[in-house]
Amino acid sequence: QVQLVESGGGLVQPGGSLRLSCAASRNILTTNPMGWFRQAPGKQRESVAAITTAGSTNYTDSVKGRFTISRDNGKNTVNLQMYNLAPEDTAVYLCYIKVGTVTYWGQGTQVTVSS
Fold first, then answer.
1. How many Cα atoms are found within 13 Å in the side-chain-facing hemisphere of 27?
2. Mapping DSSP to helix (H, G, I), strand (E, B) and coil, where does residue 30 land?
3. Residues 6-39 pLDDT 10s
């Protein structure tokens, strides 16, 4: 069993920045792929960013150049640094980790971009 806890969401003005963190309950980040999805009201859940066990990253087109996913193995966290936020980035952001055939999810953290 793995517990994931997200933090760092909040209200930010357009053009602002936020840093999300996802803490895992045990030291498995380096051996399992992780990432972030987001869910906006009335929209399908969307993959935002992912990081493989080798450290390779990929992003959905709409966030490329603005978001950066990274792993802090010492703190057992995966972070999502978000710059130049826009209203369309408003959503609940959820982190996940794949352990074998099982995907574990955090509870989500709300990001609201509004003036």
1. 3
2. helix
3. 999 999 999 999 999 999 887 766 678 899 999 9
- Cα separation, 10 vs 112, in Å, equals 6
Helix (H) or strand (E) holding 17: none
Q: Read off the tokens for 24.
A: 């895992």
Structure tokens at 40: 């906006």
Q: How far apart are CA 8 and CA 63, in angstroms?
A: 18
d(CA 74, CA 87): 33
Facing residues of 98 across strands? 103
Q: Residue 33 corresponds to which amino acid?
A: P
CA 41, 111, 109, 51 dihedral sign is positive
80-109 pLDDT, tens digit per residue, is 999 999 999 999 999 999 988 999 999 999
Beta-carbon contacts of 47 under 8 Å, excluding residues fewer than 6 positions away, are 35, 36, 37, 60
Alpha-carbon torsion angle 36, 46, 107, 58, nearest 10:
-10
